Amino acid sequence: MTDIDIQELYQELILDHSRRPRNFRRPDGATHKAEGYNPLCGDTVTVYLQMNNDVVSDAAFQGDGCAISKASASLMTESVKGKTRAEVESLFSRFRDAATGSGSADPVRLGKLAVFSGLRGFPTRVKCATLAWHTLRAALEQKASLVSTEGEETLQ
Amino acid sequence: MNTLETLKSTELDVSAIRRDFPGLHQSVHGNPLVYLDNAATTQKPNAVIEALDRFYRTDCSNVHRGVHELSERATKAFEDARVVVKRFINASREREIVFVRGTTEAINLVASSYARSRMKAGDEILISALEHHSNIVPWQLLSEQIGTRLVVAPINDSGELVLEEFERLLGPKTGLVAVAHVSNALGSVMPVRDIVRLAHSRGVPVLIDGAQAAPHLAVDVRELDCDFYAFSGHKVFGPTGIGVLWGRADLLEGMPPYQGGGDMIRSVTFEKTTYNDLPFKFEAGTPHIAGAIGLGAALDYVSQLGIDRVTTYERELLAYGTEVLRAIPGLRLIGTAREKSAVLSFVLDGIHPHDAGTVLDRLGIAVRTGHHCAQPVMARFDIPATTRASLAFYNTKEEIDALASGIRRVQELFR
């Protein structure tokens, strides 16, 4: 039934984070920053990071977009705090596997991010959820240019 | 004629029409399809599907060269389609009908051939703020190539062209006016007759992008008095990959070819090539033969229904849809022009169009969400995107009711 799919996608956790995004601010001490844009729907996100050597000591974002993209950015900033670059990278990879339904994503190791496994039946919306992550990775690499979701193949 | 007969002659039999469109009868995510994305592309009637099938099954051949039976059949069907197009837009000559891939290619043809050879650095192309990207970007490319300038006439808060501003911007340097007949994002019907009158009074030719007009309004290029008119087959119930550029013969005659290749030449030596007559001069390479034949079938289908009946019926649907959507709290219609085609573009308080589109899709309702390839229009209304329901003659009031209840479901979910 269709309503179940919809409720699977828009779970309370996602709705909550889209209504009241956490870490929705521009931190004073940000050491890394990148801007992301999804030309398909006009979503924009700016990710700010405070790096303490190799560790993300603070993560925040600003921007505008759909519920999925806001919730994804919000949950992402919560989940990367205290992690090393390598841990962030590995988390992203597991997150993407869960969102696209590929690989064998372990819901336990994903924590709250497991909520995005509801995206599996909605391939056109995966980019909404990955925008913040691509932007985060660009920030980690200190790319000065605007990052975009285009060029990334949507995995079915 | 008595009242009953008058009534009968002006009404469409929508349930009979719906039976002609196989694509409309399917379930999507367990719900009956409600197809409200007609401004993106339309569903195809059996007549079109059968015309394509017939061409590929029995008449498949190249055109304009073979002496054999199949080639003669293919050529006849292809050229018959050109006659159908001519009649549909009331052009005076077949030679003025150029088959292209679609409206986008038609505009690019005019930019590359007409504008590029006639205009020089500093000359201006005047468009409106309502244009689709396909009537913006070709002119920007031209500006990069030869230094022309793109000038944009503003729209008001209802999504209507500000005609006084348009007139003011029409200056001594204006070399071409290029405007939509109907806005794809908002549905506004542009005052094309006034535009043509004002432009012609200053000796400026006018290109009309009719992609969103041809499926909904009677198009009469002689009455419009424009110089170029472009439209796409797939938006008027025909196949994708085929469209039409109509141009005044005297203008087309004076224009250099758009692309070089077969079919557009009369004779070729390594020293000199003589170009073919109109319209073949602009039809290099093997054309989309099946597409043109399918387009002919589509236009015949629409003509049989009667485009004026279509306009009347859609006006009624639009009025109903406007009333139903306006009654939904938290919904704001974007584009409220007095003269409007059957497009309902809207935003919902606190809900991103992309989320609304996903939920509506799960309910079987196909709408478009996004900027509709008209980002400057979105910027004008200070919104990133809208949800757009665009109607056709096969849509019903029941489908609009389904849309309204879908929207309420969206609002419940995101409350």
Describe this structure in words.
- The complex is a heterodimer of chains A (156) and B (415).
- With 156 residues, chain A is α+β, with helices and mostly antiparallel strands.
- Chain A is built from 6 helices and 4 strands, in the order H-H-E-E-E-H-H-H-H-E.
- Chain A has a single domain (2-148), classed as Sufe protein. Chain: A (Alpha-Beta Complex), CATH 3.90.1010.
- Chain A has helices at 2-9, 12-19, 67-80, 85-100, 107-110, 126-140, and strands at residues 32-38, 43-52, 55-64, 147-148.
- By secondary structure, chain B is of the alpha/beta class.
- Chain B has helices at 3-10, 14-19, 46-59, 69-88, 103-118, 137-146, 163-169, 192-201, 221-224, 249-254, 289-305, 307-326, 353-362, 375-380, 397-413, and strands at 27-28, 31-32, 34-35, 97-100, 124-128, 149-153, 174-180, 206-209, 228-232, 243-247, 265-268, 273-275, 331-333, 343-348, 365-366, 368-370, 386-390.
- In chain B, strand 11 and strand 12 form a beta hairpin.
- In chain B, helix 3 runs antiparallel to helix 11 (289-305), helix 5 runs parallel beside helix 6 (137-146) and helix 13 (353-362) crosses helix 15.
- The longest helix of chain B has 20 residues, at 69-88.
- The interface between A and B is medium-sized, with 21 and 22 residues.
Radius of gyration of chain B: 22 Å
Q: Report the CATH architecture of chain A.
A: Alpha-Beta Complex
Strand order of the largest sheet of chain B: 4-10-9-8-7-5-6
Number of strands of chain A: 4
